[in-house]
Amino acid sequence: MLTQKLVFAIEPAVDLRYNLSWAFGGFFDLLPKRLGNNEALDACVSALVSAHADFCTNQGQLTTHALSKHSLALNILRDHLDDPVKARAADTLCAVMVLLMGQIVEGLFNPKIQFSAKEWEILADNDLDPQTLEGRLMRCLGRVPIMLLRARTIHRGEQRHLELIQEARAQHHIMSNLTTEIRKLMDTSEQRIPSGSKYKMSLFHIHAHYQRLYGLAITFAILLNRLVRSFDKDDACLSEEMERLSKEAIDLAEKAACYRPLGASWVSLCLRTAQVATENHELKTELDKAMTDYARDFPRMDMVSPASHLESLFSNKHLGDSKSTVTWSSDISQQILLS
Predict the structure, then answer these.
(1) What secondary structure does DSSP assign to 74-91, as a single string?
(2) How far apart are CA 16 and CA 41, in angstroms?
(3) Structure pTM?
C-alpha cells in the first residue's frame, strides 16, 4: 500500500503541479524498491506521502494525522541514527534524505545552518558533469560562499583583496553567459509548445525544466552581482543588470504560474533573492507583491526570517573590512540537482 501511494505521487503521468519527483528530484524514483526493509525509511516515506496528500487536497494545510506521522518518523529515525549499525545503512541515509529533501534549500536563508570553507569547496567540486548546465551552475555558485568567507579575513588594498575582486568578476562573467545560454533554451522550448497541450505532455516537461533552470540561474546571477557590487558599488553596468534580472524574476513568476504549486516551488527562491538584492523601490514593491501571491501556495513557510537573513548578508557592503560580520549559510541548491 505504501509503495502504491509513493508511486502515485512520483510517476511521470502525474501533473507537474503536484509531482513529487519533479519538485524534489529523481531520487524519489529509486525509493519504491527500497521500501519494506528499513523501518525508518518506511516511516519517513509514509510521513511524506501523507503530507503530500494533504497538500494536494487542503491547499497546503497539514492535518493532525500528517503531523503525527512526521513526529513518529523523526522518533524512529533518531533511534536508527543512534544505532551504530543501522546508522550506516543505505536505507537509513535515504530516510534522512526524504525528511531533509524539502529543507536543503533552506540553508541560504537560515543563519543557523553553516558550512565551513572546506565543506563549501567539496560542494563546489561536485560530481555533476562540468559540461552540463547543472554542473556549471553548481560549480559557479559553490565559489560564492568561499569568496565571502575569504573576504572576512582580508583588508581592502591587500594583494589578496585585489585577487578576490578579480575572481568575483570572473565568476560573475561566467554566470552572466550561462544565464543567457539557458534563456535561449527556455525560449526555444516555449515556442515548441502547441496551444491546447496538457500539463503531462513531454514538451511541457522540457519547458518546465529550462524555466526552472533559468530561474535558478537568475537567482545565482543576482547573488554574484551583489557580491561584485560590494567591491565596486559605483559600477553602473551592475546596477542596470540588477534591474534587468529583477524584472526577469517578476516575468518568470508570471509565466511559471501554470506549474503551481509544487511545479513552481522554486519561484519563491528567485523572487526572495531579487526582492532583497535590488535597490529599486518600485521593483521591490512588485517583487513583494509576487512573493505574497506565491506564499499562498505554502502557507506554513516562513518568508520573513529568510528575507531578513539575506538582507543582513547584503547589507554588509564593506566585505573587505576587518569589522565585517558577513555570514553565509548553507542553502546551496538542491534545486540544481533535481533540475
Answers:
(1) HHHHHHHHHSTTGGG-HH
(2) 25
(3) 0.78
Find the helix or strand (DSSP H, E) in which 244 lies: helix 236-255
d(C-alpha 98, C-alpha 76), whole Å: 14
The answer to whether the beta carbons of residues 2 and 46 sit under 8 Å apart is yes
Q: For residues 99 and 74, is the Cβ–Cβ distance under 8 A?
A: yes
pLDDT tens series, the chain, 339 aa: 898 888 888 887 778 888 888 887 778 888 999 999 999 999 999 998 888 888 888 766 678 888 889 899 999 999 999 999 999 999 998 998 888 764 454 444 445 556 566 665 665 565 556 778 888 887 887 777 777 777 777 776 778 878 888 988 999 999 999 999 999 999 998 888 766 555 445 788 888 999 999 999 999 899 889 888 877 778 889 999 999 999 999 999 999 999 898 889 889 889 999 998 898 999 999 999 999 999 888 766 655 555 555 665 555 544 444 344 334 333 433 443 344
Query: In this structure, are residues 298 and 60 in contact, taking their beta carbons and an 8 Å threshold?
Result: yes
Of the candidates 242, 239, 223, 245, the one whose C-alpha atom is nearest the C-alpha of residue 146 is: 223
DSSP string, 138-179: HHHHHHHHHHHHHHTT--TTSHHHHHHHHHHHHHHHHHHHHH
- Residue 111 and residue 309 in contact, taking contact as beta carbons nearer than 8 Å: yes
Burial-class residue 38 by CB neighbours within 10 Å (0-12, 13-18, 19+): buried
Cα separations in angstroms, 186 against 23, 270, 301: 18, 16, 29
Cell of 166: 578579480
**228-266 burial, b for 16+ CB within 10 Å, e for fewer?**
bbbbeeeeeebbebbeebbbbbbebbeebeebbbbbbbb
Q: Of 104, 105, 103, 1, nearest to 49 (Cα)?
A: 1
Contacts (Cβ under 8 Å, ≥6 apart) of 155 = 161, 320, 321, 322
